Amino acid sequence: MGLPVLVLIGPPGSGKSTVGRVIADRWSVPFRDTDEDIEAMAGKEVSAIFIDDGEETFRTFEREAVRTAIAEHSGVLALGGGAVLDQRNRDLLQGLLVVFLDVDLGDAVTRVGLARERPWLLPSPRAHLKWLLEQRRPIYLSTASAVVSTTQRTPEEIADDIEALRK
To answer: What is the pLDDT of residues 68-89, one digit of tens each?
Structure first.
């Protein structure tokens, strides 16, 4: 048990899970994704929670997942894109190495794809993702202790920048 050595935040398509796994492997620590924790708690995929139960229920699961993961995970932690919208979650991140993986709209849209498993982006994934990026960027910036751009970069290049922060 212990605190995460790194927490990754950012919008959908920023590379939190992909980069998080690369860093965890490099640092020989476990990787954890709160969206996977939520799915385990709810017994269904994130998209099904949004569709069946609504965003409010999802955010309740998310608060619990973030609280639990920060309390017990000592590796690399990736938070869902909207986790930092809740002040309680942001408060839990104080004093941790929190990296905002910044991404431009074009790369985010390419990585997210047609959003079949991200129903909150429908009916217009590009327009909704643009809105999310604009609305959440100030919160990501105020929460993070560092910002790393993922636009037009490989997971390994991004991981190199994150590793440099730890030195």
So the answer is: 999 999 999 999 989 999 999 9
Q: How far apart are the first and last CA of the chain?
A: 23
Structural domain span for residue 129? 6-166
Give the model's pLDDT for residue 7: 98
Contact assessment for residue 7 and residue 96, using Cβ atoms and an 8 Å cutoff: yes
For residue 86, is it within any domain? yes
d(CA 68, CA 37): 9
Q: What is the pLDDT of residue 92?
A: 96
Here the tokens at position 159 are 């991981």
Q: Is residue 161 part of a domain?
A: yes
- Report phi then psi at 136, rounded to 5: -90, -20
Q: What is the pTM of this model?
A: 0.89
Is 1 part of any domain?
no
d(CA 137, CA 151) in angstroms, rounded, equals 15
Its sign, for the CA torsion 18, 22, 27, 30, is positive
C-alpha to C-alpha distance for 80 and 9, rounded to whole angstroms: 7
CATH number reported for the structural domain that contains residue 123 in this entry:
3.40.50.300
113 pLDDT tier (thresholds 50, 70, 90)? low
- Whole-number pLDDT of residue 101: 94
